[in-house]
Design goal:
With 126 residues, this protein is mainly β. The chain has strands at 2-7, 10-13, 18-26, 31-39, 46-52, 58-60, 68-73, 78-83, 92-100, 115-116, 120-125. The protein has no helices and eleven strands.
Length: 126
C-alpha cells in the first residue's frame, strides 16, 4: 500500500506564493506516477500536474501551466507544487495522488489514480 501526506497549505493574500509538499511512504517503488489535483467548493476536481516517476517527465494541465510548477526530491520520495501569483479563484483543497502497480501514467483524470492524500487547504484572499 502507498500512503500520501500533503502539507504546506495555508492562507495567503492575492499575489502570494505557497509551496505544497506530498510525501509518499509505504511501497513507493511501485508508484508509476504522482499528480496534483485541486477541488474548490461546488466545482469538479481538476488536474494540475503529473510526473512520471521513472522518466521524470512532467505534464501540466494547460490552464495551470505558467503559475504552478511541479518538482520532486527522489531521495525523500516527495513531490512539490509551487504556487505563485495566487488568485482568489485558486482557493481549493489541493490533493496529491498516485498511480501504483499498473505501469500507466500521464493522465490528469482523477479516476485514474488509486491512492490519494487527505488534501491541504489553500485559501487566497483579496
Amino acid at each position: 500500500q502507498v500512503q500520501l501526506a500533503e502539507s504546506g497549505g495555508g492562507s495567503v493574500q492575492a499575489g502570494g506564493s505557497l509551496r505544497l509538499s506530498c510525501a509518499a511512504s509505504g511501497y513507493t517503488s511501485n508508484i508509476d506516477c504522482m499528480a496534483w489535483f485541486r477541488q474548490a467548493p461546488g466545482k469538479e476536481r481538476e488536474g494540475v500536474a503529473v510526473i512520471h516517476t521513472a522518466s521524470g517527465a512532467i505534464y501540466y494541465a494547460v490552464s495551470m501551466k505558467g503559475r504552478f510548477t511541479l518538482s520532486r526530491d527522489n531521495a525523500k520520495n516527495t513531490v512539490y507544487l509551487q504556487l505563485s501569483s495566487l488568485k482568489p479563484e485558486d482557493t481549493a483543497m489541493y490533493f496529491c495522488a498516485a498511480r501504483a502497480g499498473t505501469g500507466g501514467c500521464g493522465s490528469l483524470v482523477h479516476s485514474w489514480y488509486n491512492y490519494w492524500g487527505q488534501g491541504t487547504q489553500v485559501t487566497v484572499s483579496s
